[in-house]
Amino acid sequence: MKPYRVLIFDWDGTLADSTAQIVQGVQNSFCRFGWPPPAEADIRATIGLSLREALRRLCPQLDQQQTEAAIRAYQHEYFHRREQTVLFPDAGHTLQRLQQHYWLAVATGKGRRGLDAALDETDTRSFFLATRTVDECASKPQPEMVLSICDELGVHPAEALVIGDTTHDLHMAHNAQSPAIALTTGAHTPGQLQTAPHLAMLDGLTSLAAWLAE
């Protein structure tokens, strides 16, 4: 196995098959106020950022009051109207396999309440020694989540491998001086991922386990 000490996973689009759910939630939130919903491609481009930062990029014309209303509407969609979180089919087995060789962690653009709900719904909390959300750290692509996890676990950032499905994940890793793997299972296209620093681009978690075993 490759000699990393900790694997830091993004959540949405990396472990959880939730990209379409997020797109629908954002569009429903806008429709609730009679605002034109953003296009799917535009929403996908912001997945991985904090919700506040995503809204700033999607609709820079929103004032603070409108932004807060949109955040509350999305949170209502997430906690009361969405379907239960579903992992990619190979996620559970891959996490079990990798846990035998590495420490595992999560760095996500979700809030703490959202991540905790997802971990409980998928019964995956026990896999991870550390988790970070935008409630504790700056949004991606800032490096704070990676650096905070490394500090908690006592590892150097170069010993942490970041795995994610967006350029925001890859730039976060680069800013922390950590290596990264791009997965093509989520929000960003291979063409988009190609623009950000990464060691390899893989088609899923099973391929990640095989790459680590090379």
Describe the structure.
This protein has 214 residues and is of the alpha/beta class. The protein folds into two domains: 6-17 and 86-213, HAD superfamily/HAD-like (Rossmann fold, 3-Layer(aba) Sandwich); 18-80, Orthogonal Bundle (DNA polymerase, domain 1). The chain is 47% helix and 11% strand. It is built from ten helices and six strands. Strands 3-2-1-4-5-6 form a six-stranded parallel β-sheet, with helices on both faces. Helix 3 packs across helix 4. The model has no long low-confidence stretch (mean pLDDT 95).
Output the structural class. Answer: alpha/beta
In angstroms, what is the radius of gyration? Answer: 16 Å
Q: Report the CATH superfamily of the largest domain.
A: HAD superfamily/HAD-like
Output the strand order for the largest sheet.
3-2-1-4-5-6
CATH class of the largest domain: Alpha Beta
GO biological process, one term: DNA repair
Protein name: Phosphoglycolate phosphatase
Pfam families: HAD_2 (PF13419)
Organism: Eikenella corrodens
Topology of this protein?
Elements: E1 6-9, H1 19-32, H2 40-46, H3 51-58, H4 64-81, H5 91-99, E2 103-107, H6 112-122, E3 130-132, H7 144-153, E4 160-164, H8 167-176, E5 180-183, H9 190-193, E6 200-202, H10 205-213
Parallel strand pairs: 1-2, 1-4, 2-3, 4-5, 5-6
Helix pairs in contact: 1-4, 3-4
